[in-house]
């Protein structure tokens, strides 16, 4: 069972309090009707299958209820960092593996 | 004849305990295991092997035991198969039975398999039973089924209680041998939460088997008891009978504590086992090492056992495993076993060592004890029917094996050296490094916050184990910011040693006929492993699966390294190039009870009940599960089956009034200045202009354009909406809304609060619904003009502040009364009383399903399957045409979703008036060849309704353009023709919804 | 709403280890707001705790923009906040959940039966949402030996059942 740091609660807590919510930084276009079919397909379906650092979302479901973002190494299953939704992607080169 | 040695062992001779083995009374002592008590009677034969039904006795003294598996029984339902006799402690009244034998352990007809040895070689599953083809069902499969499996599964419900707890600690130490004890001492007294666990009934590990050692001048057992007292005083939690079964991410360790299996009487409220879910900041693995058997013909005969285990039986249990043992070894450690047994009165027949040179002090001591020594010898056979009676040994010079000679004996104590217990370390994805000197894998790097101490990383001897336990624990403490120096220890009469590695021992006989066992439990021989390689298996993982080496319940504790050595030799590679198979949790076999914990019976999973559920129960409701809820499905009167009850409930509701508990509907209160904007963006329907006091049906789609959920949404005030969802969709919809709100539209000033359980919701439907309700709602006139269909109001109902909705899921005049949840039953009973004059009828979910289907109202998840758009469902009317955007709007415009020929929801009426089966497939031409082209399927089908004939809803390709056409539903016995019709079977003009019109 | 608050205190189990009591309803309001909370705090008459887990006068901060207010006078709070000039959401959830009080030497240990989170690491006088045996609960730690669990009505029997079993198990352990 993973340990996850909630950036809102500022606590590192057991995975059982959280729910996975898919890849992060996929922004719903402001005007969906202006999107081509290809663009909309990309938005709906096309996802990374990263080996290594993966930007993803979690929700502190049994906690503060917030969705937030995380960088997790899919090989080691360790979180490199977590950060609130809406903030920019952290620079991978500044992250060292460890508990976020 | 007793093999118990006076004055030896840690058993309590003042407490004799009787138990039974295969129906015979046996006496042992408190502190004995079943194995030690039977060995004390001179009984080595404890079971039959899995495949060949060969007689077997214990080969080990601990949890790695592969052979001595027994059934244990305490009482009705309290039977456990495959318990290791070496771990089961004696208790009064314990009943034990041997396994895999018929009719008796001593005479077993299944042993014919042993003679048919050639039939059962590696991969026999894949080869032997191939031909003739028709033999499979009649001959092979019944034979395999009868022969397969270890022990017998219990058939009665287990009456025992199982428990679980979470634990958090600073330092968890696994294994309470010398390394673990030294680690615990190092960590104790520093204000840290330290936990020390051991799978045995008492702490001590090797110290229990080596009482001769003196630690810092104190005898081992005295040192042990004072250390345990010291640890307890320092607040260290010492847990015995507790097995760490798995090591998971981020220092999360599963442990099973056995609480009652050793007790004569089980105290009340005490669980049999407890699963501990431990999160440790630092873990010290001090699990020690496992002794390897030697691989030679007949190495499985009862009486052949590991030398270290014989030492354990002697020193811990006071049991001599043989009076005339012979020692066969490639490692120094077994020499000490010979000396210990000789010291206890055994006539050690010989020490046979495969090595040409052995330490002089060992040779001297053997000489002093008059034990014959044979160096550079191999063993090539054993004899004896149910117990070893001789060992055949041969001199080896280079690659030449001389003629053999027999050594008479009653036990063979073997040692092929030691291998670290790597299981838990491997669970951490830890890397192993091959050590050429020790010819074994040692733990290397691990991603976890974990250190390995003592024999677990190849350090032999008590002094080395103690020193390393302290040092490794200090390394863990350093990581916790507790710097310090590791304690040092001096041990006298320590027994460190070295040895050499072997594949199977050399023999002068035909190797192809040798039964030299590598995996005792799965009956895998060296020959099987070589055959697997010969037949093309290259990876150790393939060899493992082809031969089943290491796949038994002992997880290859004894067989993996020997198996690897042999496979590597057959492949002509070095061991690290061949690699070790993966060890997986659990470390030892674990009961299902321990995994289930409290989750059984009524506590198996959450069963949510509404406030009105108790009334339904008192009134004979039959329930069905809907999500986590249990809902009243129908209310049978005496003698009624479901069909009859539902027919009556449907008719009563359409003719007068029905009452229905709708409390399970999901409810979300959407509040804030942007509430209308948010609801408008989420749902397909327009909501900006919905006036307070009005409701509107809402369809919720995903951004892919497919229907996700639906419900009625009421506007309580400008900035407050009361949104309802389906029962099963409540949590999912709230999560989806939070997702959009938090991450896509964080600028909106609106908040979502789940009020599903704030309100009890009671639906009244039927032509008399308004008449029933009006007297209870003095502040609101319930007329078509004043409170039309799709209105809502905050008003007192029967004196309770309520949210009253005029909505219908039946096609009749309908109301839903929401009152604070705890008052739900009170309101229900008030309405029930008031409704008696109208013959009010309580109905359940089944009637609700029928009545809604007659009106063509969909149930999301039944009439939709995640690939249905609002247009497919015939609900284009629910999609706002003038909206700039809503969730799903762009998705619905995707090429596939607007293409012709999509499956669309239609009604079906069968030509012969029969009822269709839900899920039945639909074809256009019943005479086409099989496989037919299926164009859709039945989603809902009922014949208890009020239409006068069975009705069905179905998804059919291009269905909405096929009105009036006939389609066919092929069933196993016949083909049913049905006409495609509108989904609305009752009152398409909605006249019955109007107050006054239907009265 | 008298009927909501009038049910009696009900002791589910009480022994040497711990007692578990179903305590009467108080009114509960879910408050959501963000930004400058000054106007709301002036209406409420006290400062809202800003750190998740913080508790002030029966009001616990459960999320960055979320508070649960336990009160004996919901109407007064609703009235006071009605005219506050700050976008917010105030929802009466008094009927939604019930509370269990868990008190005794082994109260914290009892919670470990269902809570994966480290109970010992929770500070006295705090509250947060967490999970107990798969069920979302609000866990209040009043003192090291007294906790409260708020749980939605329909999950309460499941939670109560485990608390009762566990309390007996803990008592047996002490015997």
Characterize the structure shown:
The complex is a heterotrimer of chains A (100), B (999) and C (175). Chain A is mainly β and 100 residues long. Chain A has a single domain (3-27, 43-94), classed as Folate-binding superfamily (Folate-binding fold, 2-Layer Sandwich). Chain A contains one helix and six strands; from the N terminus they run βββαβββ. The longest helix of chain A has 9 residues, at 37-45. Chain A is globular. The mean pLDDT of chain A is 93. Chain B is of the alpha+beta class. Chain B folds into seven domains: 12-127, 2Fe-2S iron-sulphur cluster binding domain, sarcosine oxidase, alpha subunit, N-terminal domain (Ubiquitin-like (UB roll)), CATH 3.10.20; 162-289 and 420-492, FAD/NAD(P)-binding domain (3-Layer(bba) Sandwich), CATH 3.50.50; 293-416, FAD/NAD(P)-binding domain (3-Layer(bba) Sandwich); 503-589, Arc Repressor Mutant, subunit A (Orthogonal Bundle); 610-664 and 758-832, Probable tRNA modification gtpase trme, domain 1 (Gyrase A, domain 2, 2-Layer Sandwich); 667-755, Alpha-Beta Plaits (2-Layer Sandwich); 853-882 and 897-991, Aminomethyltransferase beta-barrel domains (Elongation Factor Tu (Ef-tu), domain 3). In chain B, the strands form 13 sheets. In chain B, strands 8, 9, 12, 13, 14, 15 and 28 form a seven-stranded mixed beta sheet that branches. A six-stranded mixed beta sheet of chain B has the order 41-42-43-40-34-44. A six-stranded antiparallel beta sheet of chain B has the order 46-47-48-45-50-49. By secondary structure, chain C is of the alpha+beta class. Chain C has two domains: 7-25 and 96-174, Gyrase A, domain 2 (2-Layer Sandwich), CATH 3.30.1360; 27-92, Heterotetrameric sarcosine oxidase (Alpha-Beta Plaits), CATH 3.30.70. Chain C is built from five helices and eleven strands, in the order H-E-E-E-H-E-E-E-H-E-E-H-E-E-E-H. Chain C has helices at residues 2-5, 38-44, 74-82, 107-111, 156-174; strands at 10-14, 19-23, 27-33, 55-56, 59-63, 66-71, 88-92, 97-103, 126-132, 135-143, 146-152. In chain C, the strands form two sheets. Chain C has a six-stranded antiparallel beta sheet. Chain C has a five-stranded antiparallel beta sheet with strand order 4-5-6-3-7, with helices on one face. In chain C, a hairpin with a 2-residue loop joins strand 10 and strand 11 (146-152). The relative contact order of chain C is 0.20. The chains are: A mainly beta (100), B alpha+beta (999), C alpha+beta (175). Chains in contact: A-B, A-C, B-C. The interface between B and C is large, with 47 and 48 residues. Chain A: One of its GO terms (molecular function) is sarcosine oxidase activity. Chain A: Residues 80-100 are annotated as: Disordered. Chain A: This is Sarcosine oxidase subunit delta. Chain C: This is Sarcosine oxidase subunit gamma. Chain B: Residues 515-597 form the SoxA A3 domain. Chain B: Residues 903-987 form the Aminomethyltransferase C-terminal domain.
